[in-house]
Amino acid sequence: MRTRQPTAPKKPRIVAPAADPIVAPAVGPEILDTIFSRLRAADPEPKAELVYRNAYTLLVAVVLSAQATDKGVNLATAPLFAVADTPEKMLALGEDRVRSFIRTIGLFNTKAKNVIALSRILVERHGGQVPDSRGDLEVLPGVGTKTASVVLNVAFGVPTIAVDTHIFRVSNRIPLVVAPTTDKVQAGLEAIVPEPYRLNAHHWLILFGRYICKARRPDCPICPIADLCRYPAKTVAA
Q: 146 catalytic, yes or no?
């Protein structure tokens, strides 16, 4: 008699870590505009901290940055991109060589496979070019909503707001958009951020969350929007 194989448990839906509890509603349109005008004044031309040469190397760098720091990715990709800055060159390099370049990055085995697989798709289906369509990007191995949004924004100037853990935290803290998942925060931000700020909003918010509105101890005394933020547990100067 054939024994029935146990069914694999369903993978739980990934939800960003819960932000600190909010005791106030999201800020209104006027305050929202003031928040972004101040962030723009502090950094008029924000740039991605990942180092890349073209749309392809940007795509690879963002894929590699999952669960890794930009600094760590940059250290690994500098020598990699020096020898392979197109999908054709990456395929010629091969998975084993790619793996040897990125061994210092978390999940490097899976990421090396994804880099080779997405490079092959770009060559076979897109003539070696990175597509500017979200649908075409999100079917590439290792590419999800966040990665596609970053590539669309940085490489093609599309006003998307990719939400990582920093932006998720900042949005729920201020609060700009209060939502339980990164996808819902992204949809909310893209709906409310005023058009003049939308293109650079991703960079302003991620840098703000990385260097000022930090997870464990936000640096409220130097925050340019401290008087507008409704976060109840603000820190004070030491």
A: yes
